[in-house]
Amino acid sequence: MTEALLLPLLRDPARLAALPLAHWDGLLRQARASNLIGRLALAAPPSAPAPVQPHLLAARRLVEHQRHAIRWECNHLAEALDGLQLPVVLLKGGAYALADQPAARGRLFGDIDLLVPRTMLGPVEAALMARGWTSGGTEAYDQRYYRQWMHELPPMVNHRRGTVVDVHHNLLPLSARRVPDAERLLADSLPIPGTPFRRLGPCDQVLHCASHLFHEGDLRNGLRDLLDLQALLQEHSEQPDFWPALEARARLHGLEWPLLLGLRYSERLLGQKLPSGLQEALQAHCGWSDARLAWMDWLYLGLLQAPLPSAWRLPEHLAAAGLYLRAHALRMPPVLLARHLARKAVLRVFKHSSRGP
After folding, report:
1. Phi–psi pair at 352, nearest 5 degrees
2. Cα separation of 121 and 339, whole Å?
3. Three-state DSSP class for 191?
4. In what helix (H) or strand (E) does residue 66 lie, and over which residues does it extend?
5. Which secondary-structure segment (H or E) carries 236?
6. How far apart are CA 354 and CA 357, in angstroms?
């Protein structure tokens, strides 16, 4: 497996100044594969080798362009939803960028995620469609699956600009084992100054980041999300009583175990300082044994260190397969999962056979 350079160097950027040119190629590849090239470019010293400088400059310009683009796109969304008189909460990267939070520094963005009341999904979808967003191209079964079981509408793509909006009514699928209290998420959200949007409260931002990371079956953005989590912890932990509030909020939403894993790997991989006894309390609330935590460590620790997937050995491939299966099991109960996977398999067979030899 290619040496995992990215995590140690992002954790201690001062070491970049002495990094030999021969190691920069692997580092840049790992940063791109992990969607962290922007963070690396901002952390790199001016003394980085000359052949590396064009890559870093391009990444810095991309970061700057995306920050402008996401504000531009949010202006369009604000215009589209202006007449609905409802709370619209920006999630993840969009919130970090518009609120100018530390987690946005060097972050690259994909789609824009919104959280709205479930009762307003129809009006929101209609308003976006009137302004050029559509979820066309999704198969009829997938449309039904999204609308019946998921926590969001099918992704909506703007036919003029190609931008993607995900409209959520919760943070996790309705078929998941524990579903957060969406009404409390919206009620306790905070305004983003200078915009018509809101963002989740401090504890809910942390819990959303952790739950998103540890419900995913693909860790290509795993290290990026873990760095987001650390940035949120460092930002919000300056508030009085943040840690007790975070633990209480995790219990309210049933998200103790994603928080436990997020804190565990933030401490182990990034050196995050945590209150004494917090992890033990969360583990007790989850009812997780030490053996179960060791199993989670085997699944996550190697993949979160972001080596190039092309250099994975058998353990990494097995861990990736295990996470993929685990994510599906978390998303829905066994009977529903079996029915869903069987239906998808049959649809693929018929689709393939209809194309002919």
Report:
1. -65, -45
2. 26
3. strand
4. helix 53-81
5. helix 222-236
6. 9
**Cα 302 from chain centroid?**
18
Question: For residues 236-254, b (16+ Cβ closer than 10 Å) or e, as one string?
Answer: bbeeeebbeebbebbeebb
DSSP 76-99: HHHHHHGGG----EEEHHHHHHHT
The CA distance from 187 to 269, in Å, is 34
318-347 confidence digits (pLDDT tens): 999 999 889 888 877 666 666 666 666 666
pLDDT tens per residue, range 192-243: 999 999 999 999 999 999 999 999 888 889 999 999 999 999 999 989 899 9
Distances (CA, A) of 88 to 23, 77, 99, 171, 190: 45, 10, 14, 14, 10
Whole-angstrom Cα distance, residue 21 to residue 26? 10
Residue whose entry in the numeric block shows the structure tokens 């685990």: 326
Contacts of 350 (CB under 8 A, 6+ apart): none
Strand order in the sheet with 198-199: 133-134, 156-158, 164-168, 112-115, 89-91, 198-199, 190-191
Q: Of the candidates 176, 140, 137, 135, which has an alpha carbon nearest to the alpha carbon of residue 153?
A: 135
Positive or negative, the CA dihedral 235, 282, 189, 104 is positive
- What are phi and psi for residue 76, nearest 5 degrees? -65, -40
Contact in structure between 70 and 98 (CB atoms under 8 Å)? yes
Tokens of residue 121, six digits = 């999904």
CB atoms within 10 A of CB 216: 17
Give me the pLDDT at residue 346, please: 66
Residue carrying the six token digits 């066994």: 334
Give dist(CA 197, CA 181) in Å, integer: 20
311, 51 contact by CB (below 8 A): no
**CA distances from residue 35 to 6, 28, 157 in whole angstroms, order as listed:** 11, 10, 21
- Residue 1 has a pLDDT of 41
Residue owning tokens 């952390």: 43
Confidence of residue 309 (pLDDT cuts 50, 70, 90): confident
Q: Which amino acid type is present at position 332?
A: M
